[in-house]
Amino acid sequence: MKNERRRVLKWAAVSGVAWLLAGCKQGPRPPVPGKPTVYLTTDDGPLRGSEYIDAAVREYEVPMTAFVVGKHARTLAFRARLEAYRNNPHIRLGNHSYTHADGHYLDYYRHPQRVLRDFEHNQRALGLSEKIGRLPGRDSWRFGSRAYDADPTARAAADLLARNGYRLYGWDLEWTHTQSGAPIGSAEQIHQKIIHQLAKGHCFTPGHLVLLMHDQMFRSRAAVAELYRLLSLLKEDQAIRLRYIDDYPLTAPPLVLKKGTAPRLIKAPVTGIGESTPVDPLKFGR
Question: CB count, 10 Å around CB of 252?
């Protein structure tokens, strides 16, 4: 045990995340001391590609949360993919709305009551027991006393869902994809960026990183191989631990801005992937 703790503390000092250790000790379930946490999530299933995510998760036995869309499960083929998720002991289901806004996000979020009805319909249609959700197309968080909206157009809808008992989860890092659905960046690059963001504190909660992927990304043989590679890298990485999104800590240190300063966007860390999504310090406290 002492040797394990020395190893973890040495890694933390080298990587610059020693200050994260206190944050990692928060949450409803006591974590392994000193280990930052990664939460694997997928959106938009069931779709073509869901079956490969299901198979990869079964093989590597890693915890995954799939945020699912009821409208996508109306045919027998896609319903079968949903049932595979439901029967996978390593996958838990979350609510991603019934319609996914039908692709018309601005209009969707202009009507918060409609968003609530959409989520409640999905909850009933799919028999979801927990009110764990993610907004379609919006990085919004609502749980405990914490709230964040990357896009203010979703604020009223997110608040209404929270008042009706939903815990909403956004993401810290997205494995992005091309218009055709192919993943952008290799598994090694995503793994490197996960470690880099944890070290820099670019997480909504220090020491806890939520990774967003999309089911439709994993349809080709090459894309599926990258998914398998990422799960292998994460499972073998002894410096982190993997958990379900409902294990995410409900509390975190508050962000304190100096008097007279305003929030500013900070360029995200670059790890070989050609995207430069800004980092909002109102979300990623610095």
Answer: 20
DSSP for 180-206, please give it.
TSPBSS-HHHHHHHHHHHHHHT-SSBT
In which domain, by residue range, is 119 found? 35-252+259-279
Are 51 and 79 a contacting pair, CB within 8 Å?
A: no
Domain assignment present for 93: yes
What's the one-letter identity of residue 154? A
- Cα→Cα distances 109→80, 148, 217, 218, Å: 30, 16, 26, 29
On whether residue 124 sits in a domain, the answer given is: yes
How far is Cα 283 from Cα 246, in angstroms, rounded to an integer?
19
Amino acid (one-letter) located at 231 = L
Tens-digit pLDDT profile for residues 59-114: 999 999 999 999 999 999 999 999 999 999 999 999 999 999 999 999 999 999 99
What's this model's pTM, rounded to 2 decimal places?
Answer: 0.81
CA–CA gap between residue 131 and residue 94 (Å, rounded): 7
| Residue 147 CB neighbour total at 10 angstroms | 14
Beta carbons within 8 Å of 240's beta carbon, 6+ residues apart: 35, 36, 37, 38, 194, 195, 198, 234
Flag whether 24 is in a domain. no
Domain count, the chain: 1
* Domain annotation covers residue 10: no
